[in-house]
Protein backbone atom coordinates (compact mmCIF):
# COMPACT_ATOMS: atom_id res chain seq x y z
CA UNK A 1 0.00 0.00 0.00
CA UNK A 2 1.29 3.47 -0.91
CA UNK A 3 1.46 5.53 2.28
CA UNK A 4 2.32 8.86 0.66
CA UNK A 5 -1.34 9.84 0.42
CA UNK A 6 -1.68 9.52 4.20
CA UNK A 7 1.47 11.34 5.35
CA UNK A 8 1.42 15.03 6.24
CA UNK A 9 4.60 16.49 4.79
CA UNK A 10 6.59 18.33 7.46
CA UNK A 11 5.75 22.02 7.58
CA UNK A 12 2.92 21.82 5.08
CA UNK A 13 -0.45 23.46 5.59
CA UNK A 14 -3.34 21.11 5.02
CA UNK A 15 -7.11 21.12 4.78
CA UNK A 16 -8.70 17.99 6.19
CA UNK A 17 -11.92 18.71 4.31
CA UNK A 18 -10.35 19.42 0.91
CA UNK A 19 -7.34 17.09 0.84
CA UNK A 20 -8.39 13.98 2.75
CA UNK A 21 -11.42 11.86 1.93
CA UNK A 22 -12.71 10.03 5.06
CA UNK A 23 -14.31 7.42 2.79
CA UNK A 24 -11.16 6.68 0.74
CA UNK A 25 -10.55 2.96 0.23
CA UNK A 26 -7.68 2.77 -2.30
CA UNK A 27 -8.17 -0.09 -4.75
CA UNK A 28 -10.40 -2.10 -2.42
CA UNK A 29 -14.08 -2.15 -3.30
CA UNK A 30 -15.44 -3.79 -0.17
CA UNK A 31 -14.43 -5.36 3.13
CA UNK A 32 -14.17 -8.90 1.74
CA UNK A 33 -11.49 -7.71 -0.70
CA UNK A 34 -9.32 -6.58 2.21
CA UNK A 35 -9.88 -9.42 4.69
CA UNK A 36 -7.07 -11.59 3.37
CA UNK A 37 -4.47 -8.83 3.48
CA UNK A 38 -5.49 -7.73 6.97
CA UNK A 39 -5.18 -11.29 8.27
CA UNK A 40 -1.74 -11.59 6.67
CA UNK A 41 -0.64 -8.29 8.20
CA UNK A 42 -1.87 -9.34 11.64
CA UNK A 43 0.34 -12.42 11.34
CA UNK A 44 3.26 -10.30 10.12
CA UNK A 45 2.83 -7.95 13.04
CA UNK A 46 2.93 -10.87 15.50
CA UNK A 47 6.13 -12.10 13.83
CA UNK A 48 7.84 -8.69 13.94
CA UNK A 49 6.74 -8.12 17.53
CA UNK A 50 8.35 -11.38 18.60
CA UNK A 51 11.69 -10.27 17.14
CA UNK A 52 11.28 -6.75 18.55
CA UNK A 53 10.80 -8.27 22.01
CA UNK A 54 13.77 -10.64 21.64
CA UNK A 55 16.14 -8.01 20.25
CA UNK A 56 15.24 -5.59 23.07
CA UNK A 57 16.74 -2.56 21.30
CA UNK A 58 13.80 -0.58 19.92
CA UNK A 59 10.37 0.22 21.27
CA UNK A 60 7.37 1.28 19.20
CA UNK A 61 5.00 4.01 20.36
CA UNK A 62 1.70 4.17 18.46
CA UNK A 63 -0.45 7.27 19.00
CA UNK A 64 -4.12 7.44 18.04
CA UNK A 65 -5.95 10.76 17.88
CA UNK A 66 -9.45 11.28 16.53
CA UNK A 67 -12.83 12.79 17.06
CA UNK A 68 -15.30 10.71 19.10
CA UNK A 69 -16.62 7.56 17.37
CA UNK A 70 -13.83 7.52 14.79
CA UNK A 71 -12.91 3.94 15.73
CA UNK A 72 -9.79 4.15 17.90
CA UNK A 73 -10.84 1.27 20.18
CA UNK A 74 -11.94 -0.84 17.24
CA UNK A 75 -8.68 -0.29 15.39
CA UNK A 76 -6.58 -1.22 18.40
CA UNK A 77 -8.68 -4.33 18.98
CA UNK A 78 -8.55 -5.59 15.40
CA UNK A 79 -5.00 -4.68 14.41
CA UNK A 80 -3.35 -5.85 17.62
CA UNK A 81 -5.40 -9.03 17.98
CA UNK A 82 -2.44 -11.32 17.24
CA UNK A 83 0.12 -9.52 19.39
CA UNK A 84 1.54 -11.18 22.50
CA UNK A 85 0.04 -9.27 25.48
CA UNK A 86 3.39 -9.50 27.29
CA UNK A 87 4.92 -7.23 24.69
CA UNK A 88 2.15 -4.66 24.31
CA UNK A 89 0.73 -1.94 26.58
CA UNK A 90 -2.33 0.24 25.94
CA UNK A 91 -3.00 3.50 27.78
CA UNK A 92 -6.13 5.63 27.45
CA UNK A 93 -5.57 9.21 28.52
CA UNK A 94 -8.65 10.93 29.88
CA UNK A 95 -8.98 14.17 31.87
CA UNK A 96 -5.88 14.55 34.08
CA UNK A 97 -6.14 13.69 37.77
CA UNK A 98 -5.19 16.01 40.61
CA UNK A 99 -1.83 14.27 40.85
CA UNK A 100 -1.21 14.66 37.13
CA UNK A 101 -2.10 18.35 37.27
CA UNK A 102 0.65 18.79 39.85
CA UNK A 103 3.15 17.84 37.13
CA UNK A 104 3.99 19.15 33.66
CA UNK A 105 1.66 18.06 30.86
CA UNK A 106 4.08 15.48 29.45
CA UNK A 107 4.68 13.76 32.79
CA UNK A 108 1.91 11.18 32.61
CA UNK A 109 2.90 10.27 29.05
CA UNK A 110 6.54 9.82 30.04
CA UNK A 111 5.47 7.38 32.75
CA UNK A 112 3.60 5.31 30.18
CA UNK A 113 6.33 5.05 27.53
CA UNK A 114 7.00 1.51 26.32
CA UNK A 115 10.11 -0.34 27.44
CA UNK A 116 12.62 -1.54 24.88
CA UNK A 117 11.26 -4.51 23.01
CA UNK A 118 7.64 -3.54 23.55
CA UNK A 119 4.83 -1.80 21.72
CA UNK A 120 3.07 1.02 23.55
CA UNK A 121 -0.28 2.36 22.37
CA UNK A 122 -1.67 5.75 23.41
CA UNK A 123 -5.43 6.05 22.94
CA UNK A 124 -5.34 9.86 22.86
CA UNK A 125 -2.15 11.41 24.14
CA UNK A 126 -0.26 14.57 25.03
CA UNK A 127 -1.65 16.01 21.79
CA UNK A 128 -4.84 16.71 23.72
CA UNK A 129 -2.85 19.63 25.15
CA UNK A 130 -2.90 21.38 21.76
CA UNK A 131 -6.33 20.11 20.72
CA UNK A 132 -9.07 19.95 23.37
CA UNK A 133 -7.19 22.47 25.52
CA UNK A 134 -7.00 24.81 22.55
CA UNK A 135 -10.70 24.44 21.80
CA UNK A 136 -11.45 24.95 25.51
CA UNK A 137 -8.69 27.29 26.73
CA UNK A 138 -10.29 27.57 30.19
CA UNK A 139 -8.70 24.18 30.90
CA UNK A 140 -5.37 25.99 31.12
CA UNK A 141 -6.54 27.64 34.32
CA UNK A 142 -6.38 24.28 36.09
CA UNK A 143 -2.82 23.55 34.96
CA UNK A 144 -1.16 25.82 37.51
CA UNK A 145 1.18 27.34 34.95
CA UNK A 146 3.58 30.01 36.23
CA UNK A 147 2.49 32.34 33.43
CA UNK A 148 0.32 32.37 30.34
CA UNK A 149 2.02 33.25 27.05
CA UNK A 150 -0.08 35.68 25.06
CA UNK A 151 -2.15 34.73 22.01
CA UNK A 152 -0.78 31.80 20.04
CA UNK A 153 2.50 31.76 21.90
CA UNK A 154 1.51 28.95 24.22
CA UNK A 155 0.54 26.68 21.32
CA UNK A 156 3.74 27.47 19.42
CA UNK A 157 5.66 26.77 22.61
CA UNK A 158 3.94 23.41 23.05
CA UNK A 159 4.47 22.44 19.42
CA UNK A 160 8.18 23.02 19.93
CA UNK A 161 8.20 21.07 23.20
CA UNK A 162 6.38 18.12 21.64
CA UNK A 163 8.73 18.05 18.67
CA UNK A 164 11.76 18.11 20.96
CA UNK A 165 10.25 15.39 23.14
CA UNK A 166 9.57 13.13 20.17
CA UNK A 167 13.02 13.77 18.72
CA UNK A 168 14.53 12.73 22.04
CA UNK A 169 12.46 9.52 22.05
CA UNK A 170 13.41 8.58 18.49
CA UNK A 171 17.09 9.28 19.20
CA UNK A 172 16.83 6.80 22.04
CA UNK A 173 15.20 4.02 20.07
CA UNK A 174 11.50 4.69 20.65
CA UNK A 175 9.99 4.76 17.16
CA UNK A 176 6.80 6.83 16.90
CA UNK A 177 3.79 6.28 14.64
CA UNK A 178 1.05 8.92 14.86
CA UNK A 179 -2.37 8.18 13.41
CA UNK A 180 -5.29 10.57 13.05
CA UNK A 181 -8.45 8.62 12.26
CA UNK A 182 -10.28 10.98 9.95
CA UNK A 183 -14.02 10.40 10.34
CA UNK A 184 -16.56 12.63 8.61
CA UNK A 185 -19.13 14.60 10.57
CA UNK A 186 -21.92 12.69 8.83
CA UNK A 187 -20.44 9.31 9.74
CA UNK A 188 -19.89 10.40 13.34
CA UNK A 189 -23.59 11.31 13.56
CA UNK A 190 -24.52 7.89 12.18
CA UNK A 191 -22.35 6.12 14.77
CA UNK A 192 -23.69 8.25 17.63
CA UNK A 193 -27.26 7.33 16.66
CA UNK A 194 -26.29 3.65 16.47
CA UNK A 195 -24.93 3.84 20.01
CA UNK A 196 -28.12 5.47 21.27
CA UNK A 197 -30.32 2.88 19.54
CA UNK A 198 -28.30 -0.13 20.73
CA UNK A 199 -28.58 -0.87 24.49
CA UNK A 200 -25.29 -2.78 24.49
CA UNK A 201 -23.55 0.38 23.25
CA UNK A 202 -25.08 2.84 25.70
CA UNK A 203 -22.00 2.66 27.91
CA UNK A 204 -19.93 4.08 25.06
CA UNK A 205 -22.08 7.17 24.68
CA UNK A 206 -21.94 10.39 26.68
CA UNK A 207 -24.08 13.49 26.25
CA UNK A 208 -20.82 15.41 26.25
CA UNK A 209 -19.95 13.72 22.94
CA UNK A 210 -22.78 15.62 21.25
CA UNK A 211 -21.81 18.87 22.95
CA UNK A 212 -18.24 18.51 21.69
CA UNK A 213 -19.63 17.92 18.19
CA UNK A 214 -20.81 21.55 18.15
CA UNK A 215 -17.12 22.55 18.20
CA UNK A 216 -16.35 20.47 15.09
CA UNK A 217 -14.87 23.33 13.04
CA UNK A 218 -12.76 24.48 15.98
CA UNK A 219 -11.35 20.98 16.36
CA UNK A 220 -10.60 20.70 12.65
CA UNK A 221 -8.68 23.98 12.78
CA UNK A 222 -6.77 22.82 15.86
CA UNK A 223 -5.90 19.50 14.22
CA UNK A 224 -4.75 21.13 11.00
CA UNK A 225 -2.42 23.51 12.81
CA UNK A 226 -1.11 20.73 15.05
CA UNK A 227 -0.30 18.60 12.00
CA UNK A 228 1.43 21.53 10.29
CA UNK A 229 3.72 22.10 13.26
CA UNK A 230 4.27 18.55 14.58
CA UNK A 231 4.46 16.35 11.50
CA UNK A 232 8.22 15.91 11.34
CA UNK A 233 10.74 13.77 9.51
CA UNK A 234 11.28 11.71 12.66
CA UNK A 235 7.59 11.44 13.62
CA UNK A 236 5.20 12.28 10.77
CA UNK A 237 1.42 12.26 11.05
CA UNK A 238 -0.68 9.77 9.08
CA UNK A 239 -4.22 10.88 8.18
CA UNK A 240 -6.18 7.62 7.98
CA UNK A 241 -9.64 7.48 6.34
CA UNK A 242 -12.07 6.35 9.04
CA UNK A 243 -15.56 6.24 7.50
CA UNK A 244 -14.98 2.58 6.62
CA UNK A 245 -13.57 0.83 9.68
CA UNK A 246 -12.32 -2.13 7.69
CA UNK A 247 -10.11 0.15 5.59
CA UNK A 248 -8.91 1.98 8.71
CA UNK A 249 -7.75 -1.35 10.18
CA UNK A 250 -6.12 -2.33 6.91
CA UNK A 251 -4.18 0.92 6.48
CA UNK A 252 -2.98 1.09 10.09
CA UNK A 253 -1.82 -2.55 10.08
CA UNK A 254 0.06 -2.07 6.81
CA UNK A 255 1.86 1.05 8.06
CA UNK A 256 2.87 -0.60 11.36
CA UNK A 257 4.21 -3.68 9.58
CA UNK A 258 6.12 -1.54 7.09
CA UNK A 259 7.75 0.48 9.88
CA UNK A 260 8.79 -2.63 11.81
CA UNK A 261 10.19 -4.18 8.65
CA UNK A 262 12.29 -1.04 8.03
CA UNK A 263 13.99 -1.52 11.41
CA UNK A 264 15.69 -4.67 10.04
CA UNK A 265 14.97 -6.52 13.26
CA UNK A 266 16.93 -9.68 14.02
CA UNK A 267 16.89 -12.29 16.73
CA UNK A 268 19.92 -11.91 19.03
CA UNK A 269 22.93 -14.06 18.15
CA UNK A 270 24.52 -16.14 20.90
CA UNK A 271 28.17 -16.62 21.76
CA UNK A 272 30.20 -19.71 20.98
CA UNK A 273 30.19 -20.53 24.67
CA UNK A 274 26.39 -20.38 24.70
CA UNK A 275 26.28 -22.64 21.64
CA UNK A 276 28.38 -25.21 23.48
CA UNK A 277 26.09 -25.02 26.49
CA UNK A 278 23.10 -25.69 24.23
CA UNK A 279 24.81 -28.77 22.79
CA UNK A 280 25.65 -30.04 26.25
CA UNK A 281 22.08 -29.51 27.39
CA UNK A 282 20.79 -31.38 24.35
CA UNK A 283 23.11 -34.31 25.04
CA UNK A 284 22.04 -34.46 28.68
CA UNK A 285 18.37 -34.47 27.72
CA UNK A 286 18.83 -37.13 25.03
CA UNK A 287 20.79 -39.36 27.40
CA UNK A 288 17.97 -39.48 29.96
CA UNK A 289 16.21 -42.80 30.39
Please explain how this structure is put together.
This protein is of the alpha/beta class and 289 residues long. It has helices spanning 16-19, 31-55, 72-79, 98-101, 107-111, 132-135, 153-171, 185-197, 207-213, 216-230, 245-262, 272-286, and strands at 59-66, 88-92, 119-123, 174-182, 237-241. The chain is 47% helix and 11% strand. It starts with 15 loop residues before the first helix and ends with a helix. The protein is built from 12 helices and 5 strands. The protein has a 5-stranded parallel sheet with strand order 2-3-1-4-5, with helices on both faces.
Straight-line N-to-C gap = 55 Å
Catalogue the unreliable spans: none
Helix content: 40-55%
Order of helices and strands: HHEHEHHEHHEHHHEHH
Number of helices: 12
Q: Mind describing the biggest β-sheet?
A: 5 strands, parallel
Quick synopsis:
The protein is an alpha/beta fold and 289 residues long.
Label this structure with key terms:
289 residues, globular
Give the SSE layout.
Layout: H1 16-19, H2 31-55, E1 59-66, H3 72-79, E2 88-92, H4 98-101, H5 107-111, E3 119-123, H6 132-135, H7 153-171, E4 174-182, H8 185-197, H9 207-213, H10 216-230, E5 237-241, H11 245-262, H12 272-286
Parallel strand pairs: 1-3, 1-4, 2-3, 4-5
Helix pairs in contact: 2-11, 3-11
